[in-house]
Specification:
The chain is 42% helix and 19% strand. The chain is built from 14 helices and 13 strands. Helix 2 packs across helix 3 and helix 9 crosses helix 14.
Length: 299
């Protein structure tokens, strides 16, 4: 039987990304009523089952308030460098009477002060969470989801030093640091469960995963599946972090992504959710994809 308190009218900001597409697909499959907010200049199209609202490119507060009226929840899937836009999006959600806000997390453990000290955009994300906590008394609840590394995206792009096309691996130090990995499908299903279980998920920072792995684990599984030996080398994590921090003043975007990678591949930044945090998989009733499942699908 459906939960009568479930949140059913959902608005998504940022549905055109890979993550946005996965979230949209999962919510539609679960029969939620979806509205997508799109910039006026965007040419992105969506399926016929979605209501699309075109807003001015700067997302003015008054337009957001009008767009949010009658909506139960808002999901923000903003790019890394637009995180601070969420403050006025949250203000608009409060004015419109939205019940639940899901901020742009879906990555690192941004509650960790060590992560916030390392990565300026993680500090921004931490401030967004604190701002949401300040709005609880105004009637706006929130749920944040940390997924760790998004798999298979990180393998398809070579982001984590694993080049599946050339069969080359660049390990940070030993390559043995274990980190959290979550598929887009599991992330989308997690949001379905958040809205189906609003009482259990209110005002919480949730940690989910499909599996924990390391750079070396990934290469070993690829080698086992293909029978091909990979070319391997290693780099110093300290050198990479120093270089990225020095680059923040002249190549901000590249340096931010390098520091995010450091928080994944260097121990001590909370990237091993299974070891360091309480996973929400069981509470959200999430099935798990295995590393072998993911690699088999890529080959």
């Amino acid at each position: 039987m459906a939960n009568p308190s479930a949140l059913t009218n959902i608005t998504i900001i940022g549905a055109s990304s890979a993550l946005g597409s996965a979230v949209l697909e999962a919510l539609l499959a679960a029969s939620f009523k979806i509205t997508v907010i799109s910039r006026a200049s965007s040419n992105t199209t969506f399926s016929s089952g979605v209501t699309v609202l075109k807003l001015s490119d700067s997302y003015p507060g008054s337009e957001l308030v009008d767009a949010f009226k009658g909506q139960d929840a808002v999901i923000a899937l903003l790019p890394t460098f637009e995180i601070r836009q969420q403050f006025r999006i949250i203000d608009a959600a409060v004015k419109a009477g939205v019940k639940r806000f899901v901020p742009s997390e879906f990555g690192l453990n941004d509650l960790q002060l060590k992560v916030q000290d390392l990565i300026p955009t993680s500090k921004d994300k931490g401030e967004v969470i604190e701002y949401l906590r300040s709005k609880e008394e105004a009637g706006l609840s929130w749920t944040a989801i940390a997924t760790g590394t998004q798999i298979p995206w990180a393998l398809e792009t070579g982001y984590i030093g694993i080049d599946i096309r050339s069969r080359k691996a660049e390990y940070w130090d030993s390559g043995n640091v274990r980190f959290n990995a979550t598929t887009l499908e599991t992330t989308g299903l997690a949001l379905v469960r958040v809205f189906e279980k609003p009482e259990k998920t209110a005002n919480k920072f949730l940690y989910i995963q499909d599996f924990t792995t390391s750079q070396k684990d990934l290469v070993e599984v690829f080698e086992r599946h293909t029978g091909q030996k990979w070319t391997e080398n290693s780099v110093s994590s300290k050198d990479r972090i120093v270089r990225a921090q020095a680059g923040l003043s002249n190549d901000y975007a590249t340096s931010i992504y390098e520091l995010i990678l450091a928080a994944v591949l260097v121990d001590g930044y909370g990237s091993n959710f299974e070891r360091d945090e309480e996973l929400a998989n069981e509470m959200l009733e999430l099935p798990r994809h295995s590393l072998d499942d993911v690699i088999t699908a890529l080959l």
